[in-house]
Design a protein that fits this description.
Distance between the termini: 14 Å
Bound molecules: adenosine-5'-diphosphate, zinc ion
Number of helices: 10
Oligomer: single chain
Strand content: 15-25%
CATH architecture of the largest domain: 2-Layer Sandwich
Number of strands: 12
Structural class: alpha/beta
Order of helices and strands: EEEHEEEHEHEEEHHHEHHHEH
Shape: globular
Largest sheet: 5 strands, mixed
Strand order of the largest sheet: 3-2-1-4-7
Helix content: 25-40%
Length: 289
């Protein structure tokens, strides 16, 4: 059985065809420009591919409430051309097949839970730290939506006194994304993040912020595992530092088997950056059940 997968991002749309084992047979990337230019190219790619359903793991905010008149819409995104765009309706009308829909980060988490390092877990978090910071949550075996969907990148974090940078989030003065995203690193240090690889102070401060955020997520969502992906996390030295700060801020308050081994608790994404597209395949599979 073949399924379509669309990982819809602010800069590119990754389209793929895969099967129920998460195997990807082919994949293309289409730039995200205007909906009336980008969507016909996506539809052209998927039509005649003999897919049973399609899963969309989408940038947001998006409407996931099936009772809502705007279910399947991208809602208040700063990418104005895509604001209030009915992405699910557009694909469904053109292809006439079931469409699964969730956030990009819930998609990545679902990929890791189905085929990756979080296989079989009922409670886990996937965080991306890249251009923005976002997080997907599975709680009690279900991807968490709630009122809208979690926005883990915009929790409040205390800005360190030695931090001479500024919070780059236009909405908040001290949120996780504003202090720890790739662009915030670049504003703070005046250089591309990738060029700062050997600057210890850069990654200590970054890990400090991430460690504080992860303790907050651990306290509020009680995940069995925390998976970290996104461009910034390609700086692998961050993992050791993040675990140290996590331990420091946790300060022994929660004591479980999982937290005894932080190397297994706070881990990198395990699917070679295919977690999002593989998760979208699972969203497609689940849409036909
Ligand atoms: P997006 O979030 O747009 O989907 P990425 O996850 O690749 O894309 O994140 C891009 C951000 O990550 C940029 O701010 C970039 O500077 C940063 N980044 C990308 N690669 C690296 C790297 N190897 N080391 C540090 N930062 C990186
Ligand atoms: Zn914010």
């Amino acid at each position: 059985m073949l399924y379509g997968a669309l990982e819809a991002g602010g800069t590119k749309m990754v389209c793929a065809i895969g099967d129920e084992n998460g195997k990807i047979f082919e994949q293309v990337s289409i730039p995200t420009t205007m909906p009336d230019e980008t969507m016909p190219r996506i539809i052209e790619y998927f039509k005649d591919k003999d897919i049973k359903a399609i899963g969309i793991a989408c940038f947001g905010p998006i409407d996931l409430n099936k009772e809502s008149d705007t279910y399947g819409y991208i809602t208040s995104t700063p990418k104005t051309a895509w604001k209030n765009f009915n992405i699910v309706g557009c694909i469904k009308d053109a292809l006439g097949i079931p469409v699964g829909f969730d956030t990009d980060v819930n998609g990545s988490l679902l990929g890791e839970i189905t085929w990756g390092c979080a296989k079989g877990l009922t409670d886990a978090i996937y965080l991306t730290i890249g251009t923005g910071v976002g997080g997907g949550v599975m709680s009690n075996g279900r991807l968490l939506h709630g009122m809208l969907h979690p926005e883990l990148g915009h929790i409040m974090i205390s800005k360190r006194t030695e931090d001479k940078g500024k919070c780059v989030c236009p909405f908040h003065q001290n949120c996780f994304e504003g202090l720890a995203s790739g662009p915030s690193i670049e504003v703070r240090w005046g250089q591309k993040a990738v060029e700062l690889a050997d600057k210890e102070e850069v990654w200590k401060l970054e890990a400090d912020y991430i460690g504080e955020a992860l303790v907050n997520f651990c306290m509020t969502l009680s995940p069995q595992k925390i998976i970290l992906g996104g461009g910034v996390m390609h700086q692998e030295q961050l993992f050791v530092l993040i675990r140290e700060y996590f331990k420091k801020y946790m300060n022994g308050y929660i004591q479980t088997k999982n937290l005894k081994n932080l190397d297994e608790y706070i881990v990198p994404a395990s699917l070679n950056d295919d977690q999002g597209i593989m998760g979208a395949i699972k969203l497609a599979m689940d849409s036909v059940q």
